[in-house]
C-alpha cells in the first residue's frame, strides 16, 4: 500500500496577464521507506506541488485534485486544524535557502522546541534533551552550547542541518527535501545528501527529493518523476530512467550533463522539445 497517492493535482494562480496554470493534472505516488526524486528545471512545478500538499500556498492559489491520500487519510477531507496536526508531525519539509527559512530573532534551540511543543506531549526538560539529541543526529558539534546559537552565528551548512533537525523532530513518515543543497559548496552538498540518506535508512521514512540536478537523482533516488511546464513527462525506476529514457525532455536533461557532452556545445532542451 502506498504511503502517499496524489491524482490529477492542478494548481492555478490569477495574474495580471490572466490565469497561470502551475500544475496541470500531475500524479504522484510514494511507498513507505522509498526515495522519490521529482526532477525538472525551474518553473516546472516541483515545489508548488509539495507546497500544495503541505497547504502552504497563498490563498490566491486554486488547488484541486481527484485524490490526496496519506497513510489512508483523505487529506482534502481534513479540517484546517486536523491538517495542521498532520503537517509537521507525519509530513515534514526542508525548504530552500535554510538561512532565510530560520527566524533570525530566535535561537535554533527555541525554533526546534517550537515543533516539539506543537506536536508532542514532552515536558520542557524532555524537549530540551530531544533538541540536543537532534543536533547530535545531524552532526552539529557541541550541541549543548549550539542550541543557544542564532542562525547568523552558524554557517550555511550548519543552518541546513538545523533545518533537517527541525524536519525530523517528530519522526515523520514522509520527509520532503526541496533543493536541500542549493547555495552550498560541493563538499557540504555531499555531506547533506549523505546525512539525509542515512537518516532515511535509519528511520525507514519515505523521502521526496525535489531537484533539478540529475547527479543528485542518481545518488539518492529509487524512483524518478520528471516534470516539464507543470506536467508529468515520465516516471521510472532510477536505473531504467538513466539507461533508457523514453520522453524527449528526459533525454534532454540527461544529454545536458557535462559528462555527456559531445564537442564544445552542450545540447539544450529546445534541441529535444518543441514549444
Automatic annotation (TrEMBL):
Subcellular location field: Cell inner membrane
Main subcellular localisation: membrane
Entry GO MF terms: ATP binding
Signal peptide: none
Membrane topology: Peripheral membrane protein
Pfam families found in the cross-reference section: ABC_tran, oligo_HPY
Reactions it catalyzes: a dipeptide(out) + ATP + H2O = a dipeptide(in) + ADP + phosphate + H(+)
Entries under Gene3D superfamilies matching the protein: P-loop containing nucleotide triphosphate hydrolases
Keyword terms: ATP-binding, Cell membrane, Membrane, Nucleotide-binding, Transport
E.C. numbers: 7.4.2.9
PROSITE patterns: ABC_TRANSPORTER_1 (PS00211), ABC_TRANSPORTER_2 (PS50893)
ABC transporter domain sequence ranges: 4-254
Enzyme class at the top of the EC tree: translocase
Family: Belongs to the ABC transporter superfamily.
UniProt protein name: ABC-type dipeptide transporter
Protein's organism: Sessilibacter corallicola
Lineage of the species this protein comes from: Bacteria, Pseudomonadati, Pseudomonadota, Gammaproteobacteria, Cellvibrionales
Amino acid at each position: 500500500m502506498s504511503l502517499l497517492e496524489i491524482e490529477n493535482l492542478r494548481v492555478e494562480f490569477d495574474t495580471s496577464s490572466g490565469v497561470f496554470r502551475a500544475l496541470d493534472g500531475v500524479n504522484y505516488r510514494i511507498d513507505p521507506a522509498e526515495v522519490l526524486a521529482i526532477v525538472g528545471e525551474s518553473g516546472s512545478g516541483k515545489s508548488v506541488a509539495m507546497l500544495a500538499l503541505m497547504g502552504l500556498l497563498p490563498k490566491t492559489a486554486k488547488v484541486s485534485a481527484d485524490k490526496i491520500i496519506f497513510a489512508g487519510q483523505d487529506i482534502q477531507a481534513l479540517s484546517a486544524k486536523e491538517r495542521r496536526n498532520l503537517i509537521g508531525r507525519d509530513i515534514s519539509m526542508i525548504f530552500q535557502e535554510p538561512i532565510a527559512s530560520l527566524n533570525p530573532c530566535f535561537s535554533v534551540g527555541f525554533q526546534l522546541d517550537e515543533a516539539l511543543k506543537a506536536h508532542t506531549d514532552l515536558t520542557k526538560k524532555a524537549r530540551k534533551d530531544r533538541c540536543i539529541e537532534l543536533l547530535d543526529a545531524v552532526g552539529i558539534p557541541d550541541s549543548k552550547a549550539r542550541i543557544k546559537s542564532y542562525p547568523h552565528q552558524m554557517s550555511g551548512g550548519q543552518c541546513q542541518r538545523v533545518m533537517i533537525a527541525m524536519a525530523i523532530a517528530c519522526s515523520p513518515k514522509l520527509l520532503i527535501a526541496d533543493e536541500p543543497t542549493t547555495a552550498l559548496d560541493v563538499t557540504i552538498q555531499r555531506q547533506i545528501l549523505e546525512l539525509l540518506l542515512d537518516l532515511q535508512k535509519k528511520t525507514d521514512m519515505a523521502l521526496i527529493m525535489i531537484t533539478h540536478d540529475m547527479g543528485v537523482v542518481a545518488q539518492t533516488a529509487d524512483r524518478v518523476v520528471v516534470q516539464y511546464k507543470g506536467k508529468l513527462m515520465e516516471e521510472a525506476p532510477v536505473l531504467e530512467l538513466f539507461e533508457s529514457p523514453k520522453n524527449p525532455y528526459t533525454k534532454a536533461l540527461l544529454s545536458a550533463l557535462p559528462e555527456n557532452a559531445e564537442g564544445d556545445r552542450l545540447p539544450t532542451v529546445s534541441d529535444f522539445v518543441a514549444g
